């Protein structure tokens, strides 16, 4: 049943590879727990008590609440699928409640640090250096997700129109503008790409193959480590940085929502908290009564 659910996510919901893998990992852990604890080999036969027992065991292991909530969400999606297919009579996840978590503000890199990153001294002038700069410029200059960058084909880039066509979650398409400086960089990058490359992917590895998540993550961490002391140095931090810098410079929140490909405004509003914190800091530093 788990295999059928994963196929449903992959082919009908058009979920990303990363999303499907996350569900697969969570449900595999749950299935192993059922077999070990209850000698139950069919997850569709699991009871509410068994589900709650697993959640309690995760908490006892010291797993942070946000991770536990993700696994609860995986269970809800799986049993919701079984219920819709009439493979079970009752949804055993109805009794599960999400754990309370602290809301973390999105980590982002300061503007001065991003200026330092792109001043030209960190990147070599060979193909690898230009490719690495394209990766950083694309993530920070467009706010696209890691999976969206990896899935981007050369045909999705319109250098004349200065836009890229991005396929986000559930294959939802959006058009994102790119700067003239990024257009110039992309032209230089594409000129240096070997015409013999057998992949249509925009970002490729040193060996000419399509880039994969860990490869991009390593590139991002390498360069961010040179300009920031943030503990998180990931592609998603650059997405947060893109949104925060837009908001700080007066961009409309609804426009940022569309650029990021968020389904609703609530997901975008978290960036306003960073702006409020910045205002508070300015007030404390400058106002005589602060």
Automatic annotation (TrEMBL):
Domain Core-binding (CB): 1-83
GO biological process, one term: DNA transposition
Family: Belongs to the 'phage' integrase family. XerC subfamily.
Lineage, uppermost ranks: Bacteria, Pseudomonadati, Bacteroidota, Cytophagia, Cytophagales
GO cellular component: cytoplasm
Subcellular locations according to the entry: Cytoplasm
Gene name of the record: xerC
Name of the molecule in the record: Tyrosine recombinase XerC
The protein's role, per its UniProt record: Site-specific tyrosine recombinase, which acts by catalyzing the cutting and rejoining of the recombining DNA molecules. The XerC-XerD complex is essential to convert dimers of the bacterial chromosome into monomers to permit their segregation at cell division. It also contributes to the segregational stability of plasmids.
Species: Dyadobacter luticola
Main subcellular location of this protein, as a coarse class: cytoplasm
Assembly, per entry: Forms a cyclic heterotetrameric complex composed of two molecules of XerC and two molecules of XerD.
Active site, UniProt feature: 145, 169, 236, 239, 262, 271 (o-(3'-phospho-dna)-tyrosine intermediate)
């Amino acid at each position: 049943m788990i295999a059928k659910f994963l196929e449903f996510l992959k082919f009908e919901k058009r979920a990303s590879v990363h999303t499907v893998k996350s569900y697969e990992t969570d449900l595999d852990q749950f299935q192993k727990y059922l077999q070990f604890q209850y000698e139950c080999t069919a997850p569709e036969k699991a009871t509410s008590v068994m589900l709650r027992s697993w959640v309690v065991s995760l908490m006892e292991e010291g797993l942070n609440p946000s991770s536990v909530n993700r696994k609860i969400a995986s269970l809800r999606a799986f049993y919701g699928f079984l219920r819709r297919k009439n493979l079970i009579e009752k949804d055993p996840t109805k009794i599960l409640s999400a754990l309370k978590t602290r809301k973390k503000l999105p980590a982002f890199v300061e503007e001065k640090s991003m200026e330092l990153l792109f001043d030209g001294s960190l990147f070599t002038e060979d193909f690898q250096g230009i490719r690495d700069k394209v990766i950083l410029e694309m993530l920070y200059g467009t706010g696209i997700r890691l999976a969206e960058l990896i899935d981007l084909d050369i045909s999705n880039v319109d250098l004349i129109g200065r836009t890229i066509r991005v396929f986000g979650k559930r294959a939802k398409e959006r058009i994102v503008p790119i700067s003239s400086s990024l257009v110039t960089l992309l032209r230089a990058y594409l000129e240096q790409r070997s015409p013999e490359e057998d992949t249509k992917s925009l970002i490729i590895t040193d060996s000419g193959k399509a880039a994969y998540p860990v490869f991009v993550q390593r590139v991002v961490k390498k360069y961010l480590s040179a300009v920031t002391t943030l503990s998180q140095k990931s592609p998603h931090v650059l997405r947060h940085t893109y949104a925060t810098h837009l908001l700080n410079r007066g961009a409309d929140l609804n426009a940022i929502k569309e650029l990021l490909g968020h389904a609703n405004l609530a997901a975008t509003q978290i960036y306003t908290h960073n702006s409020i914190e910045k205002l508070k800091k300015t007030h404390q530093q400058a106002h005589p009564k602060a």
